[in-house]
């Protein structure tokens, strides 16, 4: 979770609304994003997170 106090991440990642959810890899690259509420237990999300952790 990121608290973007000065909106620098929102500008860098071109956030167009809130809530904006991003999965960022260890190198700082956005690998997945979703605008709106997100079910973090959904299979597609857990699969993406697991894949990133194994990379």
Describe this structure in words.
- The protein has 55 residues and is α+β, with helices and mostly antiparallel strands.
- The protein has helices at 8-12, 43-54; strands at residues 20-24, 30-35.
- The chain has a two-stranded antiparallel ribbon with strand order 1-2.
- A hairpin with a 5-residue loop joins strand 1 (20-24) and strand 2.
- The longest helix has 12 residues, at 43-54.
- The mean pLDDT is 91.
Break the fold down into its secondary structure elements and pairings:
Layout: H1 8-12, E1 20-24, E2 30-35, H2 43-54
Antiparallel strand pairs: 1-2
The oligomeric status of these chains comes to single chain
Mean pLDDT: 91
Instruction: Identify the overall geometry.
Output: globular
Q: What distance separates the N and C termini?
A: 20 Å
Give Rg in angstroms: 12 Å
What composes the largest sheet? 2 strands, antiparallel
Q: State the helix count.
A: 2
Write out key terms for the chains shown:
alpha+beta; globular; 55 residues; 2 strands; 2 helices; two-stranded antiparallel ribbon
């Amino acid at each position: 979770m990121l608290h973007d106090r000065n909106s620098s991440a929102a500008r860098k990642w071109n956030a167009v609304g809130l809530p904006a959810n991003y999965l960022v890899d260890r190198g700082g690259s956005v690998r997945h994003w979703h605008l709106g509420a997100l079910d973090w237990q959904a299979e597609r999300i857990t699969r993406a997170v697991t894949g990133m952790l194994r990379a």
